[in-house]
Amino acid sequence: MDNIGVVFLSEVVGTAMLVLLGCGVVANVALAKNKGFGGGFLMVTVGWGLAVFCGVIVAYNSGAHLNPAVTLGLVASGATEFGSGVPVNFLSVLVYIAGEMLGAILGAVVVWLAYKRHFDEEPSPGSKLAVFSTGPAIRSYAWNLVTEIIGTFVLVFVVIAFGRQGEAGGLAALGALPVALLVVVIGTSLGGPTGYAINPARDLGPRIAHFLLPIKGKGSSDWAYSWVPVAGPVIGGVLAGWASIVLLPILT
User: Fold this and answer.
1) The CATH number of the domain covering residues in 3-247
2) Cα–Cα separations (whole angstroms), residue 173 to 97, 126, 168
3) Which of 5-14, 102-111, 175-184, 224-233 has the lowest mean pLDDT?
4) Which of 149, 167, 174, 243 has the smallest C-beta neighbourhood within 10 Å, fewest atoms?
């Protein structure tokens, strides 16, 4: 398998692990009769942070983007190659995003398999959808978009900063741990209004799985909102990449 194939597989596996464990903790909290039922937003936030940790660990061959907003943010920052040594070009960007999307769909399918009986017995279509995708606490598309832009800006800007510390032996030397902590702090500080998708693949992939899977009484996949957790993270990621050129200069 050539290098680009390894990168694709790495992003598929890493993103699938991310979504399996992240959406899995939501299923544990949101679906009735689970042992974690009612565990609350903090349990979900910590679970997502640890899910990111696991996803980054297993996607070492690709540099563990696991998120189209990260991929596009790195492009906007002027990167000439990704952490895997793959040159930045149109094909490599497509390969990363395709791997992230496929992995997100597969991870969501496995969550459904793990919680199949609980999905069958859950009476609320909204709780079932919440396992797969985000939704706003107060629906206001423009302000929901702003929230997603801000949260993803923080994510990508700090991730780029981690990367630029790598050779200096800074926080980046700790690998996946600082990224996991970053996701936790974004969730606890900025996650309330929209559920902090901060990742187009994380939201759109599982939403597609929700639409396609034969989930009993699942209701709508809320496509009217689906553009917000895609557009917001893409805009936030690109803005973070551009900002890093000025605000995170590389020392030579």
Assistant:
1) 1.20.1080.10
2) 25, 41, 8
3) 175-184
4) 167
User: Rounded to whole angstroms, how far apart are CA atoms 181 and 124?
Assistant: 32
Q: What is the pLDDT of residues 120-140, one digit of tens each?
A: 999 999 999 999 999 999 999
Tokens of 51: 């899910």
- Note whether 167 and 128 are within 8 A (CB): no
Q: What is the pTM of this model?
A: 0.94
47 has a pLDDT exceeding 70: yes
For residue 82, give both structure tokens: 């990704």
Amino acid at 130: A
Q: How far is CA 139 from CA 71, 126, 194, 231, in A?
A: 28, 14, 9, 16
